[in-house]
Design a protein that fits this description.
227 residues, alpha/beta, seven-stranded parallel sheet, 7 strands, globular
């Protein structure tokens, strides 16, 4: 199979990191399908596994899966959050990632080649104040990536996760200004990242250029993370 015949599915692909990643992968000659609640090639909810299985029937084999769909959840202190808010964030950010992997990774294993890149966050490593549900959900994405990477290590399917710091995406439009200022201030480069910078890292992790890395966390944080 040549690189140009490989098919990629990017969730959350209508905007932000997902859209930038889809554009970058297309530049590499891949056949890319974007999935989102609206504005993408395919409309589907990552929390609905049955819908994802219908998508699988429609698009056929997927060689590369990028899980970029996610929500920020409540901007408030932990003690003011509700169980419903926590369930919603975990349903999208964690179970949404699990669902797509359960649907699309078996085919990769059968064919002996695949790349999965999950999108976490520096919040999943550091914990951001007033973003407890989001931080916890992204820590969960990091943990499940490490686990899946070990489980699939001999299949030819590599599973890695990226942990961006603040990136200029629509998701951050709704972040409280004081929270945004705090987490931007933690970045030694003293700026937010650009979606195309993140997409470049994702493209690398989706390629044959990566062959001996799985279950790994790749920071793209302007120097915020040094561990």
């Amino acid at each position: 199979m040549t690189t140009t015949t490989r098919a990629a599915l990017v969730t959350g692909g209508a905007s932000g990191l997902g859209a930038a990643t889809a554009e970058r992968l297309r530049a590499d000659g891949l056949g890319v399908t974007t999935l989102d609640l609206r504005g993408a090639d395919i409309t589907a909810d990552v929390t609905d596994e049955d819908a994802l299985r219908r998508v699988s029937d429609e698009v056929g084999p997927v060689d590369i899966l990028v899980n970029s769909a996610g929500i920020a959840g409540p901007n408030k202190p932990l003690l003011d959050t509700t169980p419903e808010e926590w369930r919603r964030v975990f349903d999208v950010n964690v179970l949404g990632t699990v669902n797509t992997m359960r649907v699309f990774v078996p085919g990769m294993c059968e064919r002996g080649w695949g790349r999965v890149v999950n999108v976490a966050s520096m919040a999943g490593k550091d914990g951001n104040p007033n973003l407890s549900a989001y931080s916890a959900s992204k820590a969960a994405v990091i943990g499940l990536t490490k686990s899946a990477g070990k489980e699939l290590a001999t299949t030819g399917v590599l599973v890695n996760v990226i942990a961006p710091a603040v990136i200029a995406t629509p998701m951050n439009d709704d972040t409280a200004p004081d929270v945004l200022a705090h987490i931007t201030g933690l970045i030694p480069m003293q700026r937010v990242g650009r979606p195309e910078e993140v997409a470049e890292l994702v493209a690398f992790l989706c390629s044959d250029r990566v062959s001996f890395s799985t279950g790994a966390v790749y920071d793209i944080s302007g120097g915020r993370a040094t561990y």
